[in-house]
Amino acid sequence: MNPFDYKKFFAKYLRAEHTEKEHTAFLKWFGQLSEDEKVLVMEAFQSLSKGRKWPETPEMDRWSQAIESRIDALEGAEKEPFLPIRKFWKPLPWVAAAAAVFVAVYMFLPKASLENKLTAKAEISKALEKEQFAVPEKAAVLMLNNGAVYTLSESSINEINEEGVSLEKGNDGFFLFQNTAASTNSQTQLVRTPASGQVNIQLPDGTRVWLNALSSISFPSQFSEGPRIVDLEGEAYFEVSKLNVNGVRKPFRVRTGRQEIEVLGTHFNVNSYADEDAIKTTLLEGRIVVHVKQAQVNAKETQVQLLPGQQSVLTKNETLLKVENVDSQMAVSWKEGFFNFKETEIREVMRQLARWYDIEIEYQGEVKHERFTGYLPKSMNLETLLQILEEGGGVKLEYENRKLHVRTI
Predict the structure, then answer these.
(1) Which helix (H) or strand (E) holds 281?
(2) Does the predicted model carry a pTM greater than 0.85?
(3) Most buried by CB count within 10 Å: which residue of 114, 169, 206, 350?
(4) CA triple 268-272-278, angle to 5 deg
(5) What pLDDT band is residue 109 in, cutting at 50, 70 and 90?
(6) Which value, to the nearest 10 degrees, does the dihedral of the CA atoms of residues 236, 109, 8, 19 take?
(7) Are 394 and 110 in contact (CB under 8 A)?
(8) What percent of the chain has pLDDT over 90?
(9) ∠44-50-51 over CA atoms, to 5°?
């Protein structure tokens, strides 16, 4: 058995003090164990949980039934990593509140259940990530200011023959844009992703960017005098490279329509989709200053400085930034290939699905403010994901001809 301090994790899990990152690490480790090793780990969890009181509620019954159904499905599909769980299901009536530590039930519970103070977690394990995927692979494109358009793929980048543009594919999957200081022709380069597509790029200064679906970033082929400036639409995660010129740090700035982010060297995520209710900037490492662009002449600029673990929120029609303490890992789950919802309102869930699966959303009747919590791979086929959402109750979903009809019940 590979080393992992699972007892320490269990103690934190039972106190609801664990993080998403810790739980994901545990699931990956657990998925690699042999059947006998899994049994030993579950016995340890049973021992630590002995005597713990779990509330008996209708939501608990529904959750229990969903877990039972998921175990049946796993065994029917002969998914070996989960076979030991059946042994523990019957002797452990409290498993309905704790089984998510082992079983990828994909449970999504609406807000009413969350108000009962149940920890409604839906974790995905390595074994279930191997489902049949129905998300098409779609490539990003590179657009130049002379009108040329190229597909970003390992084979097509060799076809790019433009002055001021130097590009290669790295071993880690990043597309590497090289500094073209020797060229007198600096090109503005725009990388755009389609629905269902993500791409990782490295800018000429060494800054690494993960670009989410239906997003774009523009930048020069060489960063000359003054600050390094890029323009973003949609969502991206940045790991900004520090750059010194003549002993002076050269700032990095990200412009997103209504706001500008000033960076000195840090890791952060920006969600600036036009159809979202707010622009959200989340800091993971370092320091950034977020500025709000003012439409009025002579209006006083508003700005905030973020610390790691903080998120600035700029809602539509507002000029003031709100700062919140958040679990920053949730903001970047998308770049690891997951949807991660925590009391997320149904319309926001649907917007994420629309961007990733390239579908249209149509609401029928009055849509209640249902909220969902869950953790699912973006590689999951749409039909399975919709069934999981419906399991949580409160919503009816019908999909036909690339249109998803949504109504609350």
Answers:
(1) strand 278-285
(2) no
(3) 350
(4) 105
(5) very low
(6) 20
(7) yes
(8) 32
(9) 170
Distance CA 231, CA 210 (A): 14
Residue of 299, 306, 342 whose CA lies nearest to 321: 306
Percent of the chain with pLDDT over 70: 71
In the numeric block, the tokens 């692979």 are attached to 137
Residue type, 341: F
- Residue 312, H or E segment: strand 310-315
Three-point CA angle 68, 74, 76, nearest 5°: 100
CATH number of 237-330: 2.60.120.1440
Spatial distance between the Cα atoms of 276 and 265, rounded to a whole number of angstroms: 27
CA angle 259, 264, 266 (to 5 degrees): 85
Strand 403-408 and strand 322-325: pairing?
A: unpaired
Least confident segment among 117-131, 269-283, 306-320: 117-131
- Domain parsing of the chain, residue ranges: 1-130+337-409, 139-224, 237-330
AA identity, residue 361: I
- Write the CB contacts of 164 (distance below 8 Å, at least 6 apart in sequence): 180, 183, 185, 186, 187, 221, 222
Tokens found for residue 194: 């389609």
Three-state DSSP class for residue 359: coil
Residue 389 belongs to what H/E stretch? Answer: helix 382-391
* SS3 of residue 330 by DSSP: helix
What does 112-176 look like in DSSP terms, one character per residue?
HHHTTT--------TTGGGSPB-PPP---EEEETTS-EEE-STTGGGG---TT--EEE-TTS-EE
**Beta bridge partner(s), residue 260:** 255, 291
Angle at 377 between CA 134 and CA 126, to 5 degrees: 105
Q: Rounded distance, CA 234 to CA 232, Å?
A: 6
> What is the Cα–Cα distance from 4 to 22, expressed in whole angstroms?
11
